[in-house]
Amino acid sequence: MNRYELGIVDTRNIIKTLQDVYNYDFKNYALTFFKRRIEKIIVSNNLKDADGFIRKIATEKDFFEVFLQELCVENTETFRDPSLWRLLKEELFPQIIKGSSSFKIWFPEVSSGDELFSAAIILNRLNLLKDVQLIASSISELDIEKTKKGIFDPKKIEVNDANYKRIFSEGNLTDFYKVDGDKAYWDTSLIENTKFIKQNIIFDDYPKGVKLVLFRNQMIYYNQILQERFIKIIYNSLVPGGHFIIGNNEKIDYWNSEKDFTLVNKDESIYKKKLS
Amino acid sequence: MYKAVVIGGSAGSFQVITKILSSLPKNFPLPVLLSLHRLKHVRSGFVEALSIKSTIPIVEPYDKENIKPGRGYLAPANYHMYIELNKRIALSTEEPVNHYRPSIDLTFETAAQAYRDKLIGIILSGANRDGAYGLKKLKQAGGVAIVQDPNECQVKTMTEASLKLTTVDHIFSTDQIIQYLLKLK
Fold it and tell me: Do A73 and B92 touch (CB under 8 A)?
């Protein structure tokens, strides 16, 4: 196994370079995660060491985009945690979407698109897709392009199909994708009305009037300072009473979080913005 | 003087873990970090099963949870569990390592970075090689490397892989592991 280990000083130098050259501040990413991603890029691009990485990223904008995509970790699968998606299909979506006008659902970091397509497939099956505005943002332009084309890793097909069967008794997930050579493609008509936003790292261009935010297992890559900053952005994007769903083992936990959100489903980590 | 115990296990390790956890004193002075292979899509049941006999509370931690002595932290299903330098848990859904998520290697390696020579690492029964690299990193950082006696393991692949990669401090039976942990202050 080819490994490279980045020291703390090297990590700080890399963060400083990214700040100086691109004005992106990564110091509030979770340290172990951030180091591992850079180690991975150094090995896969044969860059030898931190200096090699710094030289390349400081001069090549395309490589900076590759780095941003590497930081946006792929979702493990479509319909991860089927019990959540079953709940959305059977209870939450029908309850909160029917009769509501301009129902906006925001995916703040769309990464590999699995969460977006999971939601779109359920909305399609419920015949509610036309009633919602899906909004997908990412700090990675490459991930946005890939998601728009519906490209996904065929290695995920087995687990995706199994998850689908834990949610639906009718139909097949194959109704929504096709395999072509070594690539798999989602049916992009599912996202033909989805709005895509390229985010900069401070997310200053976030959507307003949102009724549901799905942001699972992405804030785990931030430290607590950045987590709190993002939760504030999401709070501001949500309408009062709007829902906010995070990963199973995540928690909204800052000094006055109970004033802002109510935990309405502990098993599936579903929060609701208080009416104030 | 030690600050944490980290345990890795796979096939054939459940009874061993249960026996260890049921033998610890209620006021065990260290946190116990558990990286065990488990079914990806089965979220509930495992921590409950471990808790039945354990004398110390066992939790599946939240991301960025503070690590406290006298508690067990079980890597949740379908997440890697890292230990940050500030002694908090960090979860990750990054790609599996050697087909596993949670990866025992990653928990051991990051725990070794956080606790250096104040860490005790124990590799138990299992049918793969996960944990061998992590135990090596732990030993290199000055920690105490312990491997369950392969002759006692239901499946010895994992312990043998660890022994091949690292000159460990102890090869112990389950009872010896327990005796060792009971002596810790």
Answer: yes
Residues of chain A neighbouring B46 (CB-CB closer than 8 A): none
The neighbour count for residue B167, using CB atoms within 10 Å, is 8
The pLDDT tens digits of the residues spanning A14-23 come to 999 999 999 9
> Under a CB-based contact definition with an 8 Å cutoff, are residues B2 and B184 in contact?
yes
Are A51 and A178 within one domain?
A: no
**Which chain A residue's Cα is nearest to B42?**
A81
Interface A-B, measured as beta-carbon pairs within 8 A, has a size of: 67
Query: Which residue in chain B is spatially nearest to A82 when comparing CA positions?
Result: B41
| Residue of chain A whose alpha carbon sits nearest to that of B111 | A32
Q: Answer yes or no: is A177 within a domain.
A: yes
Handedness of CA A166, A167, A168, A172 (dihedral sign): negative
Q: Is the pLDDT of residue A276 over 90?
A: no
∠ CA(A69), CA(A177), CA(A90), 5° rounding?
A: 95
Residue type, A194: T
Q: What is the CATH number of domain B4-182?
A: 3.40.50.180
Q: Does A32 touch chain B (CB under 8 A)?
A: yes
Scanning B82-121 for CB atoms below 8 A from A yields: 82-85, 90-95, 101, 110, 113
Give the pLDDT confidence of B107-156 residue by residue, as tens digits.
999 999 999 999 999 999 999 999 999 999 999 999 999 999 999 999 99
Nearest to B129 by CA among B110, B108, B112, B111: B108
User: Same domain for A163 and A44?
Assistant: no
Its pTM stands at 0.96
Q: Is any Cβ of chain A less than 8 angstroms from the Cβ of B59? A: no
Residue A4: the pLDDT is 87
B-facing residues of A in 159-218 (CB < 8 A) are 159, 162-163, 166, 217
Q: Which sequence spans correspond to the domains of chain B?
A: 4-182
**Three-state DSSP state, A129:** helix
Peptide bond into B102 cis (omega under 30): yes
Which residues in B lie closer than 8 A to residue A249 (C-beta atoms)? Answer: 60-63, 76, 79, 91
Task: Supply the residues of B annotated as catalytic.
Answer: 10, 37, 130
Taking a C-beta distance cutoff of 8 angstroms, is the pair A41, A47 a contact? yes
Lookup: tokens for A113: 């698109």
The boundaries of the domain holding residue A143 are 82-273
pLDDT tens column, B39-68:
888 888 999 999 999 999 999 999 999 999
What is the percentage of chain B residues whose pLDDT exceeds 70? 100
pLDDT above 70 as % of chain A: 99
